[in-house]
Amino acid sequence: MNKLLVVALALCGVFAAAPARAQEPFTRSTGQVGGQVMFGAYVGQGDPNPYGLGLGANAGYTLDFDLYLGGRFDYFFGGDDDTLVGEVSSNFLDLMFVAGYDIAAGESFVVRPQLGLGWLWTRGEICSANGCQDLDGDDEFNIAPGVRLLWRLFQPLYLTGEISYNNVFAERNVDGIVFAIGAGGFF
């Protein structure tokens, strides 16, 4: 009987649940600053594509309860299209407030679901044999839900990968899916 009790207690000790311990993200209670190269896939209607290749910069802070608050600036070089009236080009830039939640995925990785809210400014130009004329740009409200992966290389450097959807509240549909890779530092 004593042997059975010892075996039962040993098995309970082996299979007993330990308290759950969530690993804290390496970004907790740190400021972050970085830059990125982006490519935007235009899902709107009409030409030319205002996305294409782009560059961006971001900065923010992750609070001690893993809430990230920051801002970002993105510039897309856009594209051009030959029409009957001439060559039309379009591009844009945006400025956004970003909030996210940092989730540790191991010691060196953080997954950040995030939401960007801000303004997007479009710019265009039409060029013909008579010269070039600026098209009136619009400023529009933009919501950009997405997810960012941060990979800590070594203190204080990290690499990022991101995918987001630009949902632009504009008369002309200029929505797009944005893919980005970048690097940054935390302090």
How would you characterize the overall build of this protein?
- The protein is elongated, with a radius of gyration of 24 Å.
- An eight-stranded antiparallel beta barrel has the order 1-2-3-4-6-8-9-10.
- It has one helix and ten strands, in the order αββββββββββ.
- It has a domain at about 35-145 and about 180-185.
- The longest helix is centred in the first third of the chain and has 14 residues, at about 1-15.
- With about 190 residues, it is mainly beta.
- β6 and β7 (about 130-135) form a beta hairpin.
- The model has no long low-confidence stretch (mean pLDDT about 90).
- It has one helix at about 1-15, and strands spanning about 30-40, 50-60, 65-80, 85-100, 105, 110-130, 130-135, 140-155, 155-170, 175-185.
Entry keywords:
187 residues; 10 strands; mainly beta; eight-stranded antiparallel β-barrel; elongated
Overall pLDDT score: 88
Q: Please, how many helices?
A: 1
Principal-axis shape equals elongated
Question: Using DSSP, what is the number of strands?
Answer: 10
**Poorly predicted spans:** none
The span between the termini is 60 Å
Report Rg: 24 Å
Helix and strand composition category: mainly beta
Strand content: over 45%
